[in-house]
Specification:
The chain is α/β, with parallel strands linked by helices. The protein has 14 helices and twelve strands. Helices cover about 45% and strands about 15% of the residues. Helix 6 links the parallel strand 6 and strand 7. The site of fructose -6-phosphate has 15 residues, from helix 3 and helix 11. It comes from Sphingomonas ginkgonis.
Length: about 375
Amino acid sequence: EKGNYRHYMQKEIFEQPIVVAQTLQSYVRPFEGVVALPDMGFDLAGVKRITIVACGTSYYAGLVAKYWFEQFARVSVDIDVASEFRYRDPVLEPGGLALFISQSGETADTLAALRHARSQDQTIAVVVNVPTSSMAREADLLLPTHAGPEIGVASTKAFTCQLAVLAAFAANLARAKGRLDAAAEADIVAHLQEAPAALNAALATDEEIEGMAHLVAPARDVLYLGRGPDFPMALEGALKLKEISYIHAEGYAAGEMKHGPIALIDDQVPVIVLAPSGPLFEKTVSNMQEVRARGGRIVLISDADGVAEAGEGCMATITMPKVHPLIAPLVYAVPVQLLAYHVAVFKGTDVDQPRNLAKSVTVE
Ligand code: F6R
């Protein structure tokens, strides 16, 4: 039930610290400082390439994971939306690892892609939230998220739990490939363990975000920008906004903006910038200047250092806790979810049952 919450989506956003902690419990042993995946009867040391397939928000979790698999394990990742993967006759080396990500475990395109990969002699790993689903049953390696039932049509807590599982999986793979020593592994585990508290800190911006919803609600178009693993978070922010508030939104890699979308920018287009301080920050700041020079109105989502450095002249800023880059995508999911939620509530749309959308897309 919804309890004190107005919508399931809101309840599910606020459940994230708990369900992410719950999910992590099955994947890390904090006292030993190690990641521990379910026994897979499959030697990860031999994995040379991973094919990731999913749809929608689950696909964006896969995009974030690509950065992790490549960075930690130095394993190259091929990733596709399921509806493209199935029909492009992908090249799959026999014995390869194919990874499917799905909240429902029933999405028709993803399930068909899984079966195609199986027919091509791939080992099938599945990150799934519904343990009794078709995908869960057909997996060789089942990696459950423990988000609990997700009722709001827009995926929120399932997504952050997917990220938690995928980060642990990437660390596990890196260890199996001899790319992660004990100290580095303990470090990753410690950072993952910081996620629930950081999610709580991110949720504390709720009222502030509610207070700025009126700035975004009148827009016809909204642009979301990010770099590195925060680029998929820009895509996710745009998807959340369009599905529940019906405002056209696009996510872009910050550096790609000048290759086209910059033409859209004027004082009617809010630009939401996701930019934790760190090595990529200066680059994003220069993209913000390009936006500002054209009268664009920026909402900067960063930590206190980033807001201090680049917050001036923004239409609004949202201050996140300062977190390790590994967990930044989980933490930055919260403000984009809350922004979409409050804009939708402000506009009076049906948040939990947006028009034309179904929770589980079981047709092609
Ligand atoms: C977005 C959303 C959809 C789903 C997509 C995949 O908020 O809910 O984009 O992410 O339909 O669904 P699953 O993860 O069940 O395969």
